[in-house]
From TrEMBL:
Its EC number is 2.7.2.1. This is Acetate kinase. Pathway: Metabolic intermediate biosynthesis; acetyl-CoA biosynthesis; acetyl-CoA from acetate: step 1/2. It comes from Hoyosella subflava (strain DSM 45089 / JCM 17490 / NBRC 109087 / DQS3-9A1). Substrate binds at residue 88. ATP binds at residues 14, 205-209, 279-281, 327-331.
């Protein structure tokens, strides 16, 4: 049994063929620069890696090209016995609180939510439509980035603005990266051999995008991303929290348009805005070399992270576990050490040696006498999507 997982973006399609129980990746690939003069596909499976560049007219052509890659020397995609297709969908709004079998009605609902995620939902939908046409005989399942956070209490998901206006325009905290936070929260309980319902945890998903969540007994009670994935932690190119008055000020004093502000907050802010680079490895090299703006960027990043840890400790009341995940969280020991430095009084002690150890699996990095257990747990959104799709397909 294999599940094809598809993450369809505006000009790219990422895919993975996953065996959902063991989590083996049977094949994976990336179709890029769809609609541009020169497209590119990279594909890897047991036959090896292949790459080709050619014009890829649209998403349909891109996905067909990916399917053709399977049969280039090895088995055709059909021979893997694809039992379901799992689609990443960014915004599920108030409608979708769990993985959902794709029907025409679901497509209509996801389409309606495009106004909340104009950059993401339309290409996600395109991927669903194209894949349904190419694989019409298997169930397709939409897995929403927002779904895990449908449990947030009203006090946590309500913005203090005109309530009627907010209601009319769907303005509330939805949260994102939910598939990752959900998967990691379950991994944590499994790794510690404790029932999920007994564990109060903070999860720090630190990748190019970054978000924090507070999860009480398996139920999300707060998260740092909001109506959009802009709020919260400092990210590669996104600002995270800012005073909304800044936007009004820049509108008035710098004459910036909505488009300019959108571009500023999404692409010219965060680490890149502060020091010119958004990749954490490059940032770390600049910091080591003594670069001042990179050092400030790093300090702002860590300061914000610590604020969220403090806030979520209080929101949870009792904290058992803090977990780092995603590219930076899994691979940058100095961030983990700095984010939790000098918190002995709060019962959080990172063990320097365990923190430095490189490992692929889940691991404890706190000291034995730390009241709060600190973990590194690799996230795996594709596997989570594959499992969700397989579970729904099995129930049909
Ligand atoms: P993700 O979005 O989860 O793929 O994470 C991407 C981020 O992780 C980028 O900023 C990378 O620079 C960062 N990253 C990946 N590997 C490392 C590493 N070994 N050390 C520091 N940062 C890393």
């Amino acid at each position: 049994m294999a599940v094809l997982v598809i993450n369809s973006g505006s000009s790219s399609i990422k895919y993975q063929l996953v065996e959902p129980e063991a989590g083996d990746v049977l094949a994976s690939g990336l179709v890029e620069r769809i609609g541009e003069a020169e497209g590119r596909i990279t594909h890897s499976d047991r036959v090896g890696e292949s790459e080709s560049t050619e014009p890829i007219a649209d998403h349909r052509a891109g996905l067909q090209l990916a399917f053709d890659m399977f049969s280039r020397d090895g088995a055709a995609l059909a021979e893997f016995g694809v039992s379901a297709v799992g689609h990443r969908v960014v915004h599920g709004g108030k409608v979708f609180s769990k993985p959902t079998l794709v029907t025409d009605d679901v497509i209509t609902e996801v389409d309606k939510l495009s106004s909340l995620a104009p950059l993401h939902n339309p290409p996600n939908l395109l991927g669903i439509e194209v894949a349904r046409a190419l694989l019409p005989d298997v169930p397709h399942v939409a897995v929403f980035d927002t779904a895990f956070f449908r449990t947030l209490p009203r006090a946590a998901n309500t913005y203090a603005i005109d309530a009627k206006l907010a209601e009319e325009h769907g303005v509330q905290r939805y949260g994102f990266h939910g598939t990752s936070h959900h998967y990691v929260s379950e991994q944590v309980a499994e790794f510690l051999g404790r029932p999920l319902s007994d564990v109060n945890q903070i999860i720090l998903h630190l990748g190019n995008g970054a978000s924090a969540s507070a999860v009480q007994g398996g139920v999300a009670i707060d998260t740092s991303m909001g109506l959009t994935p802009l709020e919260g932690l400092v990210m590669g190119t996104r600002s995270g929290d800012i005073d909304p008055g800044i936007l009004l000020h820049l509108r008035r004093s710098a004459g910036m348009t909505v488009g300019d502000l959108d571009e500023l907050l999404n692409r010219r802010s965060g680490l890149r805005g502060l020091c010119g680079v958004n990749d954490f490895r490059e940032l770390s090299e600049l910091v080591s070399a003594g670069d001042q703006s990179a050092t400030l960027a790093y300090e702002v990043y860590v300061h914000r992270l610590r604020k969220y840890v403090g806030a979520y400790m209080v929101a949870l009341g009792r904290l058992d576990v803090i977990t780092f995940t995603a590219g930076v969280g899994e691979n940058a020991p100095h961030v983990r050490a700095d984010a939790l430095a000098d918190l002995e009084e709060l019962g959080i002690v990172v063990d320097p040696e365990s923190n430095q150890r490189r490992d692929k699996g889940p691991r404890i990095i706190s000291a034995p006498d730390s009241k709060v257990t600190v973990l590194v747990v690799p996230t795996n959104e594709e596997l989570a999507i594959a499992r969700a799709a397989a579970a729904l397909a099995n129930d049909l």
